[in-house]
Amino acid sequence: MKMKKLIVSSLACLLTLPMMAQLGEERHNLAVGVNLGMNMAQVEFTPLIKQKSLNGMGFGMTARYISEKYFNMICGIQAEINYTQRGWKENIEDGTGNTYSRIMNYVEVPLLAHLAFGKDALDKGVKFFVNMGPQVAFFLNEKEKMSENWDPSNRPNGVNQQYGKLVENKFDYGLLGGIGMELSTGVGHFLLEGRYFYGLADFWGSSKKDDFGRSGHSYMGVKLTYLFDIIK
Q1: For 1-18, b where at least 16 C-beta lie within 10 A, e where not — what string?
Q2: Residue-by-residue DSSP string for 29-73
Q3: DSSP readout, 191-211?
Q4: So what's the pLDDT on residue 169?
Q5: How many CB atoms lie under 10 A from the CB of residue 99?
Q6: Domain residue ranges in the chain
Q7: How far apart are CA 223 and CA 212, in angstroms?
Q8: For residue 52, which of 85, 87, 83 has the smallest C-alpha distance?
Q9: Mean pLDDT of the chain
Q10: Are 49 and 90 in contact (CB under 8 A)?
Q11: 163 touches 144 (CB < 8 A)
Q12: If one looks up domain 2-231 in CATH, what number appears?
């Protein structure tokens, strides 16, 4: 139920922006730039696989268009093209010293409603913002890492079908949300943001005949973005 509410809220924000533009003070501010960040990733599995967070890097390009100011809220759209690392790291507690992790590389394309509070889009100073909306991603490649003394035979409930199992569904989608702070200066905009992504797709088959009923990505991340104005 919480996930359905998040989906509805995200879509509502994206659909509301054009209507707000008719009511608020118009803005036409286009800024572009680059971003760099780190993800703490896991995968939601059914049946359950115990995990630790897998740290992965991410970087890409960002474009943001501010369309208007509605009372004290600055509204716009933000789009990105990012390379990111996802995957999972297993928490193996069988006394063998085994370790296992899998790094999965994706190209992500989020389209986000951007809502900011504080200084105007063109003013120097600090503002706070919220980003939310859908994200699609395309799988590139993957790599397994395991210890030299690897022995997958002794796993809880006998769940070891994941080892050596390649990605089957290369298209991923889900919901992305973030909160952050922006510092606008004479040389551009500096944004620091914390994000959370919840994947709605499975990268393995999830029918009754398949090994896993659920194999969906999720991650928390920290992102630093630099934007410079193209149109004011």
Answers
A1: eeeeeeeeebeebeeebe
A2: EEEEEEEEEEEEEEEEEES---EEPEEEEEEEEEEEEEEEEETTE
A3: EEEEEEEEE-S-SS--STTSS
A4: 97
A5: 15
A6: 2-231
A7: 32
A8: 87
A9: 89
A10: yes
A11: yes
A12: 2.40.160.20
Type of residue numbered 114: H
* Structure token pair of residue 167: 């990605």
pLDDT tens digits, one per residue of 73-111: 899 999 999 999 999 999 998 888 899 999 999 999 999
**Beta partners for residue 131, in sequence order:** 114, 178
**Model confidence pLDDT, tens digit, residues 122-147:** 678 899 999 999 999 999 999 999 99
CB-based contacts of 49, cutoff 8 Å, min separation 6? 43, 88, 90, 159, 162
pTM greater than 0.85: yes
Tokens of 92: 């193996």
Joined together, the tokens standing for residue 110 give 């989020």
Give the separation between CA 24 and CA 117, rounded to whole angstroms. Answer: 14
Q: Which tokens go with 217?
A: 């990505």
> pLDDT tens digits, residue range 178-208?
999 999 999 999 999 999 999 999 999 999 9
The confidence band for 113, taking pLDDT boundaries of 50, 70 and 90, is very high
The answer for residues whose C-beta is within 8 angstroms of residue 178's C-beta and 6 or more apart is 112, 130, 131, 132, 193, 194, 195, 196, 223
State both tokens at 132. 């939310």
